[in-house]
Design goal:
With 335 residues, this protein is of the alpha+beta class. The chain is built from 11 helices and 12 strands. The chain is globular and about 70 Å long.
């Protein structure tokens, strides 16, 4: 397997000391491990995704920006991304730090206490995520105040997500998540008057009631923070970034946005895998938004987007899950 010259140039790698081999698997793309010998005679390991066409290029641009937005705040939380682009034959690529998640790197059962201490950084996933979610996102260039959105389109699964900067979180979530995914659902599965009406009522009645700018935190609103955007348990684990150093709690495959910290928790609630102890530790460091009594309903509203996105991509019973959430929220907050 040879590494394309476009990728070598993007990474400033010497082809004479660089090899590439197939590694792992991805639901949407090909994956490989790049190993290069640096002038210092040390080896560096990188991870590459590649895929054909403009859709793959858009996905990789979003993931590149997402990884680096997270890495800039909590470096040990995810790999850094080093390059993304398109080769001369039209193959899109993304190259990041290599994340070694082999059973050997993840297991500490056979390690001595000293080895375990050396491997572990001292920051749990809950602590890292809380740090990410309590650090204000950067103010976008050209703006005087923080805004919700992201510099590029990101993909949640295979779904491109618009991230136009918006001053209001309620407006962003309505227009660029719920209504945007409704349009894609209708494109993929055809018109559905009942479903359309429920989403419209949710946007018009529930979102302002639960996420309104004058409602959250007693009118103080919320500050945009970087969120992963697709943090189900399959996108979190333990591994060694770059093939050397400490075993870390890490995340990957993000579709980031500058958003409400609790938006992150919707998909975490949907698929489970994060226990009560995780959330207790997380909320000690990143308190629930006020009013706290509506926390569970806000998470359901955020979970709704992921049911709709999964219905858009896979069809099937995800429609029923979305309908159930909307009916419950409309019954409680509609009108």
């Amino acid at each position: 397997m040879k590494l394309d010259p476009s990728i070598l140039r993007a990474l400033s790698l010497d082809p004479a000391t660089t090899t590439v081999s197939t590694h792992g698997s991805s639901g949407f793309n090909s994956t490989a491990k790049i190993t290069t010998t640096l002038p210092t005679k040390t080896q560096k390991h990188l991870f590459m995704k590649s895929g054909p066409g403009t859709a793959a290029a858009e996905m990789f641009r979003g993931e590149h920006a997402s990884l680096n937005a997270i890495h800039a705040v909590v470096p040990s939380l995810c790999p850094a991304s080093h390059a993304t682009g398109v080769t001369e034959d039209g193959t899109a690529f993304l190259v990041t730090d290599f994340l070694d998640m082999s059973s050997k790197s993840r297991s500490s059962s056979s390690s001595s206490a000293a080895e375990s201490q050396q491997q572990h950084s001292g920051m749990s996933l809950a602590t890292k995520l809380a740090t990410l979610h309590t650090t204000p996102a950067p103010t976008p260039p050209g703006y005087q105040t923080p805004h919700f959105g992201f510099p590029v389109t990101t993909c949640c699964g295979s779904t491109p997500q618009p991230n136009t900067y918006t001053a209001s979180w309620a407006a962003f979530y309505s227009n660029h998540r719920l209504l945007a995914i409704l349009s894609k659902c209708e494109l993929n599965h055809g018109a559905d008057a009942d479903f359309h009406a429920l989403v419209t009522r949710t946007v018009d009645e529930v979102v302002p009631r639960l996420l309104g700018d004058g409602h959250l935190n007693s009118g103080r609103g919320i500050t945009p923070v970087v969120v992963h955007g697709d943090l189900w348990s399959g996108n979190a684990g333990r591994g060694i970034v770059g093939g050397v150093g400490a075993v870390e709690d890490v995340v990957f495959d993000p579709s980031a946005v500058y958003g409400h910290s609790e938006y992150e928790l919707g998909i975490m609630q949907m698929f489970g895998g994060f226990g009560a102890g995780f959330f207790e530790e997380y909320h000690r460091l990143c308190p629930k938004t006020e009013p706290v009594g509506e926390y569970g309903d806000r998470l359901s509203l955020y979970e709704l987007y992921h049911h709709m996105n999964h219905f858009c991509i896979f069809g099937g019973s995800y429609r029923a899950g979305a309908v159930s959430i909307m009916k419950n929220l409309i019954k409680k907050y509609g009108g």
